[in-house]
Write a structure and sequence with these properties.
This protein folds into two domains: 233 residues, P-loop containing nucleotide triphosphate hydrolases (Rossmann fold, 3-Layer(aba) Sandwich), CATH 3.40.50.300; 113 residues, RNA polymerase II/Efflux pump adaptor protein, barrel-sandwich hybrid domain (OB fold (Dihydrolipoamide Acetyltransferase, E2P), Beta Barrel), CATH 2.40.50.100. The protein has 358 residues and is an alpha+beta fold. Helices cover 25% and strands 33% of the residues. The protein has a six-stranded mixed sheet, with helices on both faces. It has a five-stranded antiparallel sheet with strand order 2-1-4-5-6, with helices on one face.
Length: 358
């Protein structure tokens, strides 16, 4: 179920709608996932509509490889049905009059497959997204997570040149989210074309994206890897978005083995076992001039990599073995005589090491 090799996306988007101006460049190489992040009203939905062919550009261009999809200067506009994009909208937009099997078969049928060939292909996608038991159900009989899996399978079954996912996990309950994220990661990894993921969740960006593009007020404000965005936020919005320390590891009865670096943290949560996402709030990271004593906690020695003033707090960027962010007051920074290169001890209570299944 691997889609054909696809060229990359080269898009220069310029348009003005009711006073809202969008001016952003969206480049996604084949075989790569770009996460588009931004606050409400930033223009994320407009990007989706323009790339999908629902809204035409005022200026700029959209190209998949050498194929132009929208280029006002050359009077080129390819309508949405003729663009080979697998689009998953927030509302799913499944066909209510069709069951799950026929929803997934819609894409191959539109590509000219015979009904028999389409059905054979669809069975593979139903199996891949664990939908066999739901094949005869109508969308109204599905849960949010089930409907999202159908929408994803339908998009990929059409053998698109590009996948465009608009908040694919937003409407999924917390219990189903981790499983669907793993399933989505596997299928995105098998898809050889460019992938654009619209999301508001930094965890999704961390686990699914190779690069992150942040837009605010219709303009790009930062681009980089998820780790670069987290470590070096360029605006207040990005700082707030990336403020939580994110790690991945495996939880075994309260002992979390971090993937990289290879260390173990203690968490108070012993109910979740297996692969997890670990979150630690910067305010929960305590800094000390000497090794702390007292109640059992996670402690280690490190070095200050940088200090970034953020209003009434200083964000302390810590170096190996665990590259975390710590938020402390300027007064505490002065008292500890912190500066880049200064050694410091870190402590994090087990109750502050939050884990979620991934």
């Amino acid at each position: 179920m691997v889609a054909p090799v696809s060229p990359g996306l080269d898009a220069r988007l310029r348009l003005d709608r009711a006073g809202f101006e969008l001016a952003v460049e969206v480049d996604v190489p084949a075989g790569s996932t770009l996460a588009l992040l931004g606050p409400n009203g930033a223009g994320k939905s407009t990007v989706v509509e323009v790339l999908a062919g629902l809204v035409a550009l005022d200026e700029g261009h959209i190209r998949l490889g050498s194929t132009p999809l929208d280029d006002p200067a050359r009077d080129v506009f390819v309508p949405a049905p003729q663009r080979r994009m697998g689009v998953v909208f927030q509302q799913y937009l499944l066909f209510e009059h069709l069951d799950v099997r026929d929803n997934v078969a819609f894409g191959p049928a539109c590509r000219g497959r015979s009904r028999r060939a389409a059905r054979n292909q669809v069975e593979q996608w139903l199996e891949g997204f664990e939908l066999q038991a739901l094949a005869d159900r109508r969308p109204s009989a599905l849960s949010g997570g089930q409907a999202q899996r159908v929408a994803l399978a339908r998009a990929l079954a059409a053998e698109p040149d590009m996948v465009l996912l608009d908040e694919p996990l937003a409407a999924v309950d917390i219990e189903a989210r981790a499983g669907l994220r793993r399933l989505l990661a596997r299928h995105l990894g098998e898809f050889t074309g460019p992938r654009l993921l619209i999301t508001h969740d930094p965890v999704d960006a961390l686990l699914l994206a190779d690069q992150v593009l942040v837009i605010e007020h219709g303009r790009p404000t930062q681009r980089g890897s998820p780790e670069e965005i987290r470590r070096h936020p360029a605006t207040r919005y990005v700082a707030a978005l990336a403020g939580t320390n994110l790690l991945t590891g495996t939880n075994d009865r309260g002992h979390v083995r971090i993937d990289e670096p290879a260390i173990t943290l203690i968490t108070a949560d012993t109910t979740i076992s297996g692969p997890v996402v670990v979150t630690i709030e910067p305010a929960a990271v305590a800094l000390h001039a000497t090794r702390p004593e007292g109640s059992p906690r996670n402690t280690w020695a490190t070095t200050v990599a940088a200090i970034e003033p953020l209003g009434d707090i200083n964000r302390i960027v810590l170096d190996q073995p665990v590259p975390l962010l710590a938020d402390i007051t300027p007064a505490a920074t002065t008292a500890l005589e912190l500066a880049a290169g200064v050694p410091v001890w870190v402590s994090v209570k087990a109750t502050e090491v939050d884990v979620r299944s991934r």
